[in-house]
Write a structure and sequence with these properties.
InterPro entries: DExx_box_DNA_helicase_dom_sf (IPR013986), DNA_helicase_UvrD-like_C (IPR014017), DNA_helicase_UvrD/REP (IPR000212), P-loop_NTPase (IPR027417), UvrD-like_ATP-bd (IPR014016). The chain is of the alpha/beta class. It has 26 helices and 21 strands. The chain binds adenosine-5'-triphosphate (ATP) and magnesium ion.
Length: 726
């Protein structure tokens, strides 16, 4: 028996078929825990190992930075390659990278900065103020939602339809906001995508470059792509590239951010997809959990339809806890977590999920008082904290003084006597001259027209910082900024400043670590942006993501949205009440309830061994007591799978996986006595084109396994198969 390829070992037939598909576009449509992400990662490894492509010849798109990192870790454990420099990341991350490489063609400054959500909101407020728009009639958050959804649809202000006065006004604000961003050389998250899409569409040579390069494009969580992301993929896919999309329509939970399940059928049509592989075996959960998930989702009408089964056995019943109130619920969870720990379950393998962020406060409080370490994903992350953002704003100004958002954040922080009046004058001057605030300040200061002492001091400070920053290491820049700006001194005088000082120091550490990490990177033309800009970008992208600090074990707290794609030994879903989950807003939205149900399906399918569902008869939320009744989703679970008010069960201990150290280089898989290399494309008279997957048997009756794409996997006797190399 020839066993060349332990990469493929342990895959089931369908998975094997998906992993080894020829160079065609394919859709892997499968339910939760069926190994989609594993198939996608294994395919990357297989394509590289068999020499069908190199690590630089493919692009992999995932949903969060965390998922991308995980994918690279898994990859290096399968294959000793250097994954640095690979194009694997989120849509935003990858677009950002392309824009950096072609900033000129994209009409952006070399050092353009990314606005995170909070920055974007404040930028919109500024535009509205200049335009004298009533922010009660046009709440800035709604305006932001409007602008982002236009961008997600690929629409600019001059292409979007407006039917009445209200929408015309929105369009006007959108236009003015875009102009302001261009003036300041900044881009919000949605802009990264749209700008990159427009770049590829407008510049045929750049498009051709990437099309030639990325012959294999792999996309995880395809069901949650929005219109623009799909169009972007379509451009990169061109006429010839293979797009390998992996998804589950039942897990589409980002409709509120423009996700379109319809992309799946468009994809099949646009790319003439003949290979739709369905994976039906679930490897994650025991059958009680899986059956519950299947039962819940079967109440949805618009489904593509899949069956999921597992050979794992029934496992433990799903535990349902009816709490008296929210404190009782939290206490129950704490008790169970303690018990699980005693049984040997690692804290990091336990997740506490909730539908809305606001629910986490009471849970956090109880965990804190019980001394259980926990980590909140998607809360106020390090880079979102005010003092860190202040320091970053100074760094941004050093890189690009025309960044008005950064300037406004710190022009008078720490306070230096620049009053609202001088600020207004400055803004007026910038408006009249259609220039940035910095330009307005530097033009006028010399002439003494605007010159307030504070403003002079500020301009001198920034210039001084620019001088100081010249030629020193990133970590030193960060350190210089925190002291020279006066931030350190400011917080030292503040009674509650201790944490903030810690965070500023941590920022210096982060900068030092970042430059070390980057020195290991191979620099090339595409990564030409300077280190500080890269660091600032990293900060903006991380702030928008759900990134945990590395280090000690902690219970994982997160919203259901943030849990997508992850799995845990034990999962608690709290607040399973009408109005909370399904969320009350769902009742008002078209398809809202079905989206909530998919969200519940995602939540339930995160659990490998044990699942708890709890609800409270009353709880404090947003400062009000509300009385809850159990969620309809609980009724959708067959009673025989559940156990009400649990007794203490015995759980098995749980061991973590092995480790691996990576070496650069790709191992050859060729074997001299075989006529075709693994991964070689061949033609067969009847089945058409296929790819060689493996060999079986010995020299006298050697069989070859070939993946013929739509015709499936075939094992053929080499002697009679009459295969032709292509
Ligand atoms: P989700 O829809 O939640 O993203 P998924 O379809 O991406 O799930 P994976 O995360 O890839 O599923 O796999 C779920 C679990 O099953 C993982 O722990 C994975 O290692 C395991 N698994 C997948 N395929 C196999 C297999 N053939 N044999 C054993 N374990 C497997
Ligand atoms: Mg997955």
């Amino acid at each position: 028996m020839y066993s060349e390829n332990n990469l493929l070992q342990g895959l089931n037939d369908k998975q094997l078929q998906a992993v080894t598909l020829p160079h065609v576009s394919a859709l892997i449509l499968a339910g939760a825990g069926s190994g989609k992400t594993r198939v996608l990662t294994t395919r990357i490894a297989w394509l590289i190992q068999t020499g069908q492509t190199s690590p630089m010849g493919l692009m992999a798109v995932t949903f969060t930075n965390k998922a991308a990192k995980e994918m690279l870790t898994r990859l290096t454990s399968m294959l000793p390659i250097n994954t640095r420099g690979m194009w694997a990341g989120t849509f935003h991350g990858l677009c950002n990278r392309m824009l950096r490489a072609h900033y000129r063609e994209a009409g952006l400054p070399n050092t353009f900065q990314i606005l995170d959500t909070a920055d974007q909101l404040s930028a919109i407020k500024r535009v509205m103020k200049v335009m004298n728009v009533d922010d009660e009639k046009y709440p800035p958050k709604q305006v932001m939602g409007y602008i982002n959804s236009c961008k997600e649809e690929g629409l600019r202000a001059h292409t979007v339809d407006a039917y009445d006065g209200h929408s015309q006004k929105l369009r006007e604000i959108y236009d003015a906001y875009d102009q302001q961003c261009n003036r300041e050389g900044v881009a919000d998250f949605a802009e990264l995508l749209l700008r990159c899409y427009e770049l590829l569409e407008r510049e045929p040579h750049i498009r051709a470059h990437y099309q030639q390069r990325f012959q294999y494009i792999l996309v995880d969580e395809f069901q949650d792509t929005n219109r623009l992301q799909y169009l972007w993929l379509k451009l990169l896919g061109g006429a010839h590239n293979s797009i390998f999309a992996v998804g589950d329509d039942d897990q589409s939970i980002y409709a509120f951010r423009g996700a379109r399940v319809g992309n799946m059928s468009d994809f099949q049509r646009d790319f003439q997809v003949q290979n739709i592989v369905k994976l039906e075996e679930n490897y994650r959960s025991h059958s009680n959990i899986l059956d519950a998930a299947n039962a819940i989702i079967s109440n949805n009408q618009n489904r593509l339809g899949k069956n999921l089964w597992t050979s794992a056995g029934k496992g433990e019943p799903i535990r349902i806890y009816d709490a008296y109130n929210d404190t009782d619920e939290a206490q129950f969870i704490v008790d169970e977590v303690n018990m699980l720990q005693n049984e040997g379950v690692a804290l990091g393998d336990i997740a506490l999920l909730y539908r809305s962020n606001a629910q986490s406060r009471i849970l956090e409080h109880t965990l804190f008082s019980s001394n259980i370490p926990y980590r909140v994903y998607g809360g106020l992350r390090f880079f979102e904290r005010a003092e860190v953002k202040h320091a970053l704003a100074y760094m941004r100004l050093i890189g690009n003084a025309n960044d008005d958002t950064a300037l406004l954040r710190i022009i008078n922080f720490p306070p230096r006597g620049i009053g609202a009046r001088s600020l207004e004058q400055l803004q007026e001057a910038a408006r009249q001259n259609e220039c940035s605030l910095w330009q307005a300040a530097t033009n006028k200061v010399g002439e003494g027209k605007l010159g307030s002492k504070g403003l002079d001091g500020f301009v001198a400070l920034i210039r001084h910082m620019v001088d100081q920053a010249y030629g020193i290491a990133l970590g030193e820049v960060a350190e210089m900024v925190t002291t020279v700006s006066g931030l350190m001194a400011h917080y030292q005088n503040d009674k509650e400043g201790e944490d903030r000082i810690e965070n500023l120091k941590e920022l210096v550490t982060a900068a030092v670590a970042f430059s070390k990490q980057d020195l290991g990177n191979h620099h090339n033309m595409e990564e030409d942006a300077d280190l500080m800009t890269q660091f600032l970008n990293h900060a903006s992208l991380e702030a928008g993501d759900h990134q945990a600090d590395v280090g000690h074990e902690a219970l994982q707290l997160m919203t259901v949205h943030a849990a997508k794609g992850l799995e845990f030994h034990t999962v608690f879903i709290s607040g399973v009440e009408e109005g909370l989950f399904p969320h009350e807003q769902a009742a008002y939205e078209n398809g809202g309830l079905e989206e909530e149900r998919r969200l519940m399906y995602v939540a339930v399918t995160r659990a490998r061994q044990r699942l708890y569902l709890s609800y409270a008869q009353s709880r404090m939320l947003h400062g009000q007591v509300r009385y809850g009744i159990a969620s309809r989703f609980l009724d959708e679970i067959p009673a025989e799978l559940t156990k009400r008010l649990n007794s203490k069960p015995v759980a098995k201990s749980y061991a973590a996986g092995g480790q691996y150290t990576a070496k650069p280089g790709v191992p050859p898989v060729a074997h001299s006595s075989y006529p075709f290399k693994i991964g070689q494309s061949v033609r067969h008279g009847k089945f058409g084109e296929g790819v060689v997957v493996s060999y079986e048997g010995n020299a006298s009756d050697l069989a070859v396994k070939i993946n013929f794409g739509s015709a499936g996997l075939k094992t053929l006797m080499l002697e009679y198969a009459k295969l032709e190399k292509i």
